[in-house]
């Protein structure tokens, strides 16, 4: 036989005074008074029948009166003293409401206004569990197992555990969150709300904060401002992996927000790199799957890192996402985006929503914590890195030239870095020719710091080399790379143009000249290091979030 649905009252106790945080219950949290979260949870609950706010504050009672379905009960002065516990306050509110409404309640839930992160879904789950149980009372808790110690009564301390284990292996250690306490009506008295059988309901850790200090307040404000941000990004041989690395960099910069990466399942290089970084990756099978995901999840921000867009695509995404930010977008859809970031294309489409130039480059964090390369008058080490895929196989061309350079002896050490998507010639280290080949290295910055000259393509690597102060000879992979305006002499680069048009002899003669041009290399290094490239990721973070720069 089904149980009769109980009559449930939610009591929200809210004093006007607070020594730790003055006027705490009425201070704005995320744009509304703190007490609003408890009131809204109670009113939206599928199980709560009556909502009461008990307070000694006229301001709080007046605010609560704005909500239809909320009864404000002025609290007697003696029940608002610091030393008074909540038990007599809740008992007083229930008794008065029963008398006033002519009803009897079966279940009483105390909802603290100091738990703004508690969700209505969690509250209803707890109430449903309580109603279906034989418990007299139920307390909200968070499981926080830790190795702890206690006083031994002799002036010392002893372990409060039997065996030292990792946190995941420790037995449950339930801490009250203060979010709610549920009790059957008979257990609510002037001195207690705990009956004979007491249970706990474990709330998610995110919802467990009870505001008792300024630091608690800061934590809650941070959580309430948390946004769901999705990156639509791919990495593969034709596109390269630069987009993936930038998306990772920004994911780290946006710590505290809910970050999801949406990737085409066919492009395994990018998917695996994100997964290797322990990121939340959703693999998509076509555009229909993308829009089905967006419809179900409705992100706050959609970041498009797939180059050019069409207007229809941008507008369709914005049906589900509040904000659309695009990278390196030279397509017609750029004008429909909320913001476009073109660090590489300083002379791109001049829409008013575009942020162009080197100040928006997103250096990986490894370059922000590494000292720049020292200048050496004589060239010893040459770095060769043409990105994650190197579609023109420029690596193989420099590899052959390196053998020519060192044919009569080890004039220089050549350090080749081959990316994870490289599909060119099979290359191996040749110590007798001064050649070292490394595949998919974890810290490129260490190789750059050891270099006196570098060969690279005309993409994001140029910014990394500039941040390290390594003079570079640049060769573009395609026509689009030629539009990247940063890699020029005024920023410390010798640009040879498109790789398919430059001869091996031109590359070799440029290298041999630069090796001897000591003053030129020093000037190139100085030009590189004059640029402020360290703040770009933070600026882009603000653009993504819609914060004013």
Which properties best describe this structure?
7-stranded mixed beta sheet; 549 residues; 29% helix; alpha/beta; elongated; 7-stranded parallel beta sheet; 24 strands
Topology of this protein?
Elements: E1 8-13, E2 28-29, E3 32-33, H1 35-44, E4 50-55, H2 58-64, E5 70-74, H3 86-101, E6 107-111, H4 120-131, E7 137-143, E8 149-151, E9 157-159, E10 174-184, E11 198-202, H5 214-224, E12 228-233, H6 242-253, E13 258-264, H7 268-276, E14 281-284, H8 287-297, E15 301-305, H9 311-317, E16 323-327, E17 339-342, E18 354-356, H10 365-368, E19 381-385, H11 394-405, E20 413-418, E21 435-439, H12 444-449, E22 453-456, H13 461-468, E23 472-476, E24 493-498, H14 504-516, H15 518-529, H16 536-545
Parallel strand pairs: 1-4, 1-6, 4-5, 7-11, 12-13, 12-15, 13-14, 15-16, 16-17, 17-18, 19-20, 19-22, 20-21, 22-23, 23-24
Antiparallel strand pairs: 2-3, 6-10, 7-10, 8-9
Helix pairs in contact: 13-15
In brief, what are we looking at here?
The chain is α/β, with parallel strands linked by helices and 549 residues long.
General description of the model:
- The protein is of the alpha/beta class.
- It has 16 helices and 24 strands.
- It has helices at about 35-45, 60-65, 85-100, 120-130, 215-225, 240-255, 270-275, 285-295, 310-315, 365-370, 395-405, 445-450, 460-470, 505-515, 520-530, 535-545, and strands at about 10-15, 30, 30-35, 50-55, 70-75, 105-110, 135-145, 150, 155-160, 175-185, 200, 230-235, 260-265, 280-285, 300-305, 325, 340, 355, 380-385, 415-420, 435-440, 455, 470-475, 495-500.
- The strands form 5 sheets. The chain has a 7-stranded mixed beta sheet, sandwiched between helices. Strands 14-13-12-15-16-17-18 form a 7-stranded parallel beta sheet. It has a 6-stranded parallel beta sheet with strand order 21-20-19-22-23-24, with helices on both faces.
- Helix 9 (about 310-315) links the parallel strand 15 (about 300-305) and strand 16 (about 325).
- Helix 13 (about 460-470) crosses helix 15 (about 520-530).
- The two termini are about 65 Å apart.
- The mean pLDDT is about 90.
């Amino acid at each position: 036989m089904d149980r009769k649905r109980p009559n449930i009252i939610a009591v929200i106790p809210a004093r006007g005074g607070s020594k730790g945080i003055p006027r705490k219950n009425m201070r704005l949290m995320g744009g509304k008074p703190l007490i609003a979260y408890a009131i809204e949870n109670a009113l939206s609950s599928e199980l709560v029948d009556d909502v009461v706010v008990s307070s000694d504050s006229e301001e709080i009672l007046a605010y609560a009166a704005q909500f239809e379905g909320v009864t404000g009960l002025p609290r007697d002065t003696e029940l608002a003293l610091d030393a008074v516990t909540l038990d007599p306050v809740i008992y007083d509110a229930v008794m008065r409401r029963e008398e006033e409404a002519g009803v009897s309640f079966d279940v009483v839930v105390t909802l603290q206004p100091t738990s703004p992160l508690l969700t209505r879904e969690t509250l209803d789950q707890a109430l449903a569990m309580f109603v279906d149980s034989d418990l007299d009372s139920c307390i909200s808790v968070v499981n926080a197992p830790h190795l702890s110690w206690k006083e031994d009564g002799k002036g010392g301390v002893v372990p409060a555990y039997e065996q030292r284990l990792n946190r995941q292996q420790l037995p449950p250690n339930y801490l009250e969150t203060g979010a709610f306490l549920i009790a059957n009506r008979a257990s609510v008295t002037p001195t207690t709300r705990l009956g004979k059988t007491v249970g706990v309901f474990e709330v998610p850790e995110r919802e467990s904060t009870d505001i008792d200090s300024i630091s608690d307040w800061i934590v809650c404000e941070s959580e309430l401002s948390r946004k769901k941000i999705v990156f639509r990004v791919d990495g593969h041989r034709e596109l390269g992996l630069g987009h993936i690395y930038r998306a990772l960099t920004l994911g780290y910069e946006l710590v505290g927000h809910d970050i999801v990466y949406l990737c085409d399942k066919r492009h395994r290089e990018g998917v695996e790199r994100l997964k290797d970084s322990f990121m939340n990756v959703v693999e998509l099978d076509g555009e229909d799957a993308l829009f089905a995901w967006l419809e179900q999840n409705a992100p706050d921000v959609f970041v498009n890192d797939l180059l050019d867009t069409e207007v229809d695509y941008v507008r369709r995404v914005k049906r589900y996402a509040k904000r659309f930010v695009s990278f390196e977008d030279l397509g017609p859809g750029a004008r429909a985006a909320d913001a476009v970031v073109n660090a590489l294309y300083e002379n791109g489409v001049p829409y008013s929503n575009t942020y162009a130039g080197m100040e928006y480059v997103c250096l990986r964090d490894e370059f922000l914590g590494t000292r720049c390369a020292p200048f050496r008058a004589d060239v010893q080490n040459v770095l060769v890195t043409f990105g994650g895929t190197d579609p023109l196989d420029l690596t193989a061309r420099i590899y052959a030239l390196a053998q020519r350079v060192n044919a009569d002896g080890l004039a220089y050490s050549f350090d080749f870095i081959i990316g994870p998507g490289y599909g060119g010639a099979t290359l191996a280290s040749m110590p007798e020719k001064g050649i070292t080949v490394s595949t998919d290295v974890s810290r490129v910055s260490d190789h750059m710091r050891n270099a006196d000259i570098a060969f690279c393509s005309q993409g994001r690597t140029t910014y990394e080399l500039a941040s390290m102060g390594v003079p570079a000879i640049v060769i573009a992979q395609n026509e689009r790379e030629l539009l990247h305006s940063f890699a020029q002499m005024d920023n410390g680069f010798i640009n040879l143009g498109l790789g398919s048009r430059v001869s091996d002899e031109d590359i070799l003669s440029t290298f041999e000249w630069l090796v001897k041009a000591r003053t030129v290399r020093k000037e190139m290094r100085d030009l590189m290091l004059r640029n402020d490239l360290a703040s770009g990721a933070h600026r882009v973070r603000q653009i993504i979030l819609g914060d004013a720069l």
